[in-house]
Write a structure and sequence with these properties.
mainly alpha
Length: 151
């Protein structure tokens, strides 16, 4: 049995954009804008191709855009798959458990750092109502602290 050729980054991007095509973020923007920003943030932080691919897919399983079964058989590196799974929050999961899994998975922290940076971007938060903005700002700050990232 031969191993399939791994998906290229442009193929991963195309797949992620298609998987999330019907989704919007909390401000009503196409969700793919968030994925592109996280991938760019990973690249800017010196991330490697596995991490950039994981950035494009970091919410795919959690948001049910793709299944865990798909991920398991996808033509992606084991490291990319591990990072995506590490970044997939489970319903009711305590933030401490989620942070522990990220910290225990090589390469995941950099992707989560880029994700948090985009989620907490003041320009992105500014379009939300005050209660949502305050709740998310506190949530992101708590996760940064749990991950040992600077405020």
């Amino acid at each position: 049995m031969t191993t399939p050729t791994p998906l290229t980054l442009p193929e991963v991007e195309k797949l992620a954009r298609a998987a999330h095509a019907a989704q919007t973020d909390k401000a009503g923007r196409p969700y793919a804008e968030h994925l592109a920003a996280v991938a760019a943030g990973v690249r800017a932080r010196g991330g490697d191709p596995d991490q950039i691919a994981a950035a494009w897919l970091h919410d795919a399983v959690e948001d049910h855009a793709l299944t865990e079964e798909w991920l398991d058989t996808a033509a992606l590196s084991p490291r990319t798959k591990a990072v995506v799974l590490a970044l997939t929050k489970h319903p009711g999961e305590p933030p401490e458990s989620y942070a522990h899994r990220i910290l225990a998975t090589p390469g995941a922290l950099l992707v989560k750092e880029a994700d948090l940076a985009h989620n907490a971007d003041p320009a992105r938060l500014a379009v939300l109502d005050a209660a949502t903005r305050d709740r998310l700002t506190e949530k992101y700050a708590r996760m940064r602290a749990l991950l040992g990232l600077p405020a």
